[in-house]
Amino acid sequence: MKITNAEVFVCSPGRNFVTLKVHTDEGIFGLGDATLNGRELAVRSYLEDHVVPCLIGRDPTQIEDTWHYLYKGAYWRGGPVTMTAIAAVDVALWDIKGKALGTPVYNLLGGKSRTGAMVYGHASGSDIESTVAEVGRYIKMGYRAVRAQCAVPGMSGTYGVGRGDLFYEPAEKGLPPEATWSTESYLEHVPKLFEALRSSYGPDVVHLLHDVHHRLTPIEAARLGKALEPFRLFWLEDPVPAELQEGFRVIRSHTTTPIAVGEVFNTIWDAHVLIREQLIDYIRMSISHGGGISHMRKVAALAELHHVLTGFHGATDLSPVSLAAAVHFDIAVHNFGIQEYMRHTAETDRVFPHTYHFEDGYLYPGEEPGLGVDFDEELAAKFPYERAYLPINRKTDGTLHSW
Ligand code: CS2
Ligand code: MG
């Protein structure tokens, strides 16, 4: 088999997505997600201008070799644009292999270790009362795990707090909006939210999660982790910016609240100290930003040796192609922990028809050969790209803070 062409599509059915379609001389095609929130066009150019010409004529079944060809062959290694582009090619090749062999991708990864992948949904509200009620809605829908985010009094536009019904979109159309941040108010408020949640729903009913979005220092994160211990979180996510992996030692030595990190990581080198020193409990890297299925298998294998479980990023800016790849991986890999699941809009689901489905708190991949996801090019063309960015975040004195 030979790769004959590869096309890149940018569309915006509810939000922006970049999709790679790799064609072969046997008529089989594969899909990959190349979406990088707020930097979509950079990945399109990377693929169209520098990767696609090198793919034509290659054997699509040689996935591992192609991965190294793109990673090592470029000389310039890593970074979100490069690794998202490599991931899109890699995932498309796994899709092609599954279709060529007539088997779902999870089967190529060792087969099922479980029947369904437990997911967590996103509940948020403008105050504690409405957030508690929203968590209740997710419990009624069958979710076994819910992330809870609540607006903090005195802070404008708390990131992670959704505006729509059961739908949360992190990016905003146009240029980046600005929000304010006060660590003092946040640290005061969050334990009250989880106290209210546990007193409403009891200690066992549901797993509770919370995302800090990299906004604390290690000692502040340690304090928050300790304050949350009585409420038994499933995890506390992205407590601090993670470029300094050793920074997590401070958090780890103070609290037993489980820690998750990694949605902005691109390679195993961003996480190896965290994993080897057992400074985290869940690795949040995603297939689409972490170099694809081939590279994430290595991350998961290293994690397995060190008692770290997977907990893949699954926000709405990862397309259904990414989610499908994640669910196949989740079903197969032994040290799976949990899968993030933010529902896509109805337009997105129409552009990307798929076989994965949600039932009773779990996602199931379906039994179609390959990933079980398609791309409706004609419909996608009706939703052109719209500029959109993640918000900028400033402390109350105006200092630019982590997003
Ligand atoms: C969030 C995301 O899902 C999460 O955990 O942190 O909203 C994230 O900020 C976006 O996916 C960034 O593109
Ligand atoms: Mg997050």
Tell me the number of strands.
17
Major β-sheet profile: 10 strands, mixed
Q: Structural class given helices, strands, pairing? A: alpha/beta
Round the mean pLDDT to the nearest integer and report it.
96
Strand content: 15-25%
**What is the rounded Rg?**
20 Å
- Low-confidence spans: none
What would the principal axes of the Cα set say about the shape? globular
Question: How would you characterize this protein structure?
Answer:
With 403 residues, the chain is α/β, with parallel strands linked by helices. 35% of the residues lie in helices and 18% in strands. The protein has 13 helices and 17 strands. The chain has helices at residues 40-55, 63-71, 80-101, 105-108, 128-140, 183-201, 218-228, 248-254, 272-276, 292-305, 320-332, 346-351, 377-380, and strands at 3-11, 17-24, 29-33, 117-125, 145-150, 172-173, 178-181, 207-211, 235-237, 259-261, 282-283, 309-310, 339-340, 357-359, 362-364, 388-389, 392-395. Strands 4, 5, 8, 9, 10, 11, 12, 13, 14 and 15 form a 10-stranded mixed β-sheet that branches. Helix 2 (63-71) runs antiparallel to helix 3. The longest helix is centred in the first third of the chain and has 22 residues, at 80-101. The chain is globular. The model has no long low-confidence stretch (mean pLDDT 96). The protein binds D-mannonic acid and magnesium ion. D-mannonic acid binds next to loops.
